[in-house]
Structures are given as C-alpha cells and as structure tokens.
Amino acid sequence: MATKWEFEADYFTYCNCDWGCPCNFNARPTQGNCHGVAVWRIKEGRFGTTKLDGVVFAASYFFPGLIEKGNAIRRMYIDRKANPDQRKALVAIDSGQHGGGMFEIFPKLAAKSYPPIVADIEFRLDGPEAYVKIEGILEGESEALSYPDGTVISPTFTLPHGIEFKEGLATNAKRWWIKDEEMLAHHENAYGAVASVKFTNEGCVG
Amino acid sequence: MGNGAGRVYIDSKASPEQGKAIEAITSGKHGGGVFTVFPSTFSRAYPMKAATIDFRFKGHDSSFAVDGIGEVQSEHIRNPVTGAMFEGQIVLPGGLNMKKANVTNIRRWWLRDDAAGWNMAYENVSGFFAAQKYNEKGPVKRAG
Known about the structure:
The complex is a heterodimer of chains A (206) and B (144). In chain A, strands 1, 2, 3, 4, 5, 6, 7, 8, 9, 10, 11, 12 and 13 form a 13-stranded mixed sheet that branches. Chain A is mostly beta strands and 206 residues long. Chain A is built from 2 helices and 13 strands; from the N terminus they run βββββααββββββββ. Chain B has 144 residues and is mainly β. Chain B contains 2 helices and 12 strands, in the order βααβββββββββββ. In chain B, strands 3, 4, 5, 8, 9 and 10 form a 6-stranded antiparallel sheet that branches. A two-stranded parallel ribbon of chain B has the order 1-2. In chain B, strands 6-7 form a two-stranded antiparallel sheet. The chains are: A mainly beta (206), B mainly beta (144). Chains A and B meet through β10 of A and β6 and β8 of B. β10 of chain A pairs antiparallel with β8 of chain B.
C-alpha cells in the first residue's frame, strides 16, 4: 500500500536539449536522446510520518530515444545531511511504488536503476542562476537566457499537464557534466529550467 | 547571423492606404520590435504582394491560407502515450513578436513562392497563437 507523501521544493533541471527542451511540449529531444539531471531542495514535506523539510536530492537519467520509449538508465543521489529515516523515505519515493507522477513513471521507463548514492550535494538557486555539484559525479550551472545582444529574455512555461513542473523559468545551462557509470557527458549552453514545485502521491500538483 | 530573405503578403481587401501603411510598418523604418529587427536581418526583401488571405483564428485550431502561395493548419499537441490534448503556454516578457503565446502543433504547412525561390512543406512542427497588441515599441501588451 502506498504511503501518503507530499513536498514543496525548489527545483533545478537541465539536459542535453537546446534551450526550451522540445520534450516539454511532447516533441522529439534535440539530439534524439535525452540525458539530464534534476535537483530538488524540499522546503516542506513528509513521507508518512517522516518530515522531509530541508532535504536535498537529485536524479540523473539517460533515455536513448524518446522518453516514452523507455529503456532508460537512472540514479538518485541523496544529500548526506538527510537522516536515516529521510533517506529511507526518498529511496521509497524513488522506487516508484508510492505514486508521484514522474517518480512513478520514470522507474517504469528504466532498463537500469542504479542504487541511490548518499553524497554531499552542493546546491544554490537564485532566480535563473542555479548550481549543483556532487563531488566527482556531476556539476551543473545555469544562468538567465539572453538574446545575442545581451538582453535577458526570462521565458516562462505554463504547462497545466506538466509532470515535472506546472510553471518553470527556462534558463541556459551554461555548462554541465556527469561521470557516473555509463552516464558520461559534458555539455555547454543547453536547456535548463528552474521552478517551485509541489508533489503528492498524485504527481506534480503545483 | 542575418542573411535572411522575406516577403510580406497583404490581404487583397486592404485599401491602397492600408497597403502603404503595412508596407511602411514592415519596412523596419518605423519601429515595432519584430517589424524592425527582422528587416534588419534580411539581405533580400521581396516586394509586398497582395493576395486573398483566408485567416481563421480559432485558438489551437487556427489556420490561414494565402491564395496560391501557402497554407498553415494548427491543432492541439497530443500526449504521445494517452493521446490527450496538451496545452502549454510560453511567456516572453522581452519577446520581440509576442509576450504570451499558446503552443500548438502545425499539422502541416506549405509555401511556394517561385519568384523568391521558396518551395517547402512541413508536418508536425511548432506553432503558436496569441492575441497581441503592437505599436512602434513592439509588442506592448500581454494577451489575456
């Protein structure tokens, strides 16, 4: 039986697609595959009776083709500051057995889910400027999108059916890299987005 | 990068004065955001052409046809798994041609303008519709 859970979080994501990411609009990923990272910093949340306030966690994934075609490789990363109960809660959410929209769908689309890693996660978020680093594994940095003349664009997406966020600010992932098993990549000036999100067992609800 | 080419098509029902006004706006000499920026990127601007334009503004299902020149048909994007209609909007506070737009699927569009050397057709590409107000400063009001 699914445990009742919910959280509100600051969210930062990026992938190998061009700015805006066609996947947000059910289109083909720019390079035909989708490789990315997502980070959540929970402002307030709970899994059953376990409070999740302040917990940071991240996920990496690689889809060799269209997301809905599956066959993905993925892993979750949990910040070392999470206590044992919080770690168990996040592993349970990541198992896909407690609902949660993308948290339920992505495990089903994975051919290989590596076991979660507990590590120090450095995370900063200030408007379009976001940064995440897991020593030796991954790093990503985002800035405001701008026109060639330097004018900041600040495009926001409103996605009523969004499984990741309902309203997000598109950014420039100025550089990112990952080195984790066969997930090896280095990109510059790719898609990024930041958002404030709310999840429950039902999925992304805000 | 520039080096673009463009042509404006105007509905045959426009009066001569209206035609001159549209030609002036799209010349890029009277401001207007995209109406200034785009002409500045053109290495070739073909003369404005009058033709019957059948424009049907129906939200996601909008379409327009420029008689003998081209046609565009829009529809909802669909969820690839469930087939459900997808709705999404993009808000661009600094947008050159629109401030807020709904994203659609262009089921098909084609353009054939032999004088310009254009002959193309596409299916299932990005489309947008918006209600937008313009003045010499460009798009100035977010659509509701």
